Amino acid sequence: MKYLPLIWKSLWRRKVRTTFTLLSIFIAFLLFGLLMTIRAAFSLGVDLAGLDRLVLIHKISLVMPLPESYKGRLQTMPGVEIATHNSWFGGVYQDPKNFIAQIAVEPTEFMEIYKEYKLPAPQMKAWLEDRQGAIAGKDIAERFGWKVGDRIPIQATIWQPKGGGTTWEFNLVGIYDGEAGVDKTQFFFRYDYLNENRAQGEGLVGWYIVKIKDASQSLKMAQTFDEMFANSQAETKTTTEKGFVEGFAKQIGDIGSIMIAILVAVLFTILLVVGNTMAQAVRERTSELAVLKTLGFTDMAVLALVLAESLFVALVGGGLGLFMAWLIVQGGDPTGGFLPAFTLPNRDIVTGVALMILVGVVAGILPAAGAMRLKITDALRKA
Amino acid sequence: MLSFFTQIFSVAWLSVRTIRQRIGSSAVAVVGIAGVVIVFVAVLSIAEGFQAAMKNAGQPDRALIMRGGASDEMSSGLAGDAVEVMKQAPGIRRENNQPLASSELYVIVDLPKRSTMTSANVPLRGIVPITPQVRYDTRIMAGRMLTFGTNEIVAGRGAASQFAGLSVGSQVKTGQVTWTVVGIFEAGGSVAETELWADARVVQGAFRRNNSFQSVLVRLESPEQFTKTKNWLTTNPQLNVSVVDEAVYYSDHSANMTTLIRRVGVGIAVLMAVGAVFGAILTMYTAVSTRTREIATLRALGFNTTSVVISVLVESIVLGAIGGLAGGALAYVAFNGYQTSTMNFQTFSQVAFAFAVTPWLLAQGLAYALIMAFFGALLPAVKAARLPIASALREL
Prior knowledge:
A: 383 residues; alpha+beta; 2 domains; nine-stranded mixed β-sheet; two-stranded antiparallel sheet; 11 strands; B: alpha+beta; ten-stranded mixed β-sheet; 21% strand; elongated
């Protein structure tokens, strides 16, 4: 500890150089934080998807509907806690570029299965009382300035209303919230309202969500369901919700690898910058280091001094950069609904700190070793 | 006056010639700038490639008819008898008295993606015998066209390369239907190459669509006929349709995705550039400080400050140009033509495309490198100009 002032003094020996090195590292870790956030956002909340929730889709593909009647059969299966269905609405709010997921659900079952969506009890009650009622996520409500009580018109694309026209009207009865990472950009409304008022497709639903009692049985249960509906007019394909979400994320492409490739390029460059700075700092101070050794500093102490300097630069610059990234991420999804799960995962913060230490050590080790090996006589003579 | 320029030139040439003596710190600047250029070019080439695939799909003399209000083929639906009415619209090109109107279905089937072997949403298009004349920009490149009335399919080149099990002669099972792949087609690198094509009648049966279609693609006599045809179709009381220019349809669908990729790409590149400029500043400071005595000597000999400032700038810009060219070349070799696929959110279906490192992107990358190098050299150049000659000569 008593060497701290010494380290501090030698760091600021060249103010400009240290400042720019700090800034380079700052930028590198700011990028690290942001890219990791993008990577997590494109995995679409895989971490939050439940292992005890199974998703049943039509065997041919997601867009083929399933009959409403499967619900009864699923509900009576042993091991099933609760079964419900969702239907994709795909309507347009104001402009086709506003991408909003609108899903027709059965409110009671839905909220029972998705405990992570927090809806105040009076709003839930209002939803159950109003057929035209709908709830929206906090983020999307903020984006469009929706308040509870608003009437929200949505243009039909797939499901035309029976009464003519193309507009469906919903009453916003509630706004749900949730922890960081929960998708708060969705719009849920009642399936019975859709089913009674659509021109065609009565009794058809998009996919089923089944909550099972024992998550360890998920594979077996999935198989049982698929066998039950085999050779029927609508065969199913069942996966865990986690598997389903992962599969969906993989369809977008390997964003994760692209982000990591970019980061490798960034960190490699930073390593060069810091390494070069440290090498130069040691070169300039050859005689000073020799004096230190003459005064009785051991080889190890000199090694530690130089390493500490490089670690300090890496940790301070990197720490500030990562903190800055965290601050920016708190501002939420900048794309307007395209990346709902926009958060910096804790494990990436830990990785970031580990990388800072790595950069500090790798950049400092060669110059530090050089300093350690200095022969007092040679070094003093050079000056 | 002449000597002024000669001075500048000789001092600049001196600093460029001596870069080799400062190879370590110069390499840092070059690698830093090259890294930024690689990332910049690579990320934007994704957007370019995706956009090209979507843009190539649209032909100016084709119009797409969907149900009124439908924003894409996936959500559209048209009854078979309404389709017959549409074929009567004026402005539709006719060959052998047949209107070039292709009534199609657009559904999705689950097939494994080659790269991950996880299932992907592959678009399956139901086509009719007249379709090849409407989609005249497609060509069978291997095998043959499917025989109508059978379970045969032809696969686009992109689909065949991105999804497993799509070679001529192989069989694909979707639900209870087994299809036989009899041909591979190409469509100028456009999004159509990600599709599988089958007989619309067979698709209607397999997907329980009765006698309905999802869209009608018509070939017009000329692009100028579009308004006439559109007006006739949209004002016909028997029909409820929307008519869009095919090129507009595809460019609208690619807008969200390309904007997102561009924003992310430019954002990353700007941040990285700031980092690289700091790297360049450090390098140039080092260059100036190792040459302190040399610069002071030049000044003492009577060389003016301008030539010293310019020599620092030139040195940095030369390093920037090396970085920019190296980065661009690496990005081109590594990424141009790289085949991949992603999901089009409008239709939840896969789009295969190739990264496109265009000359324009390379030029932008190089310009970007030079700008970074210029800003990196500004402060060190000022420092070099302000060197006090007397004390600088004494240094070291």
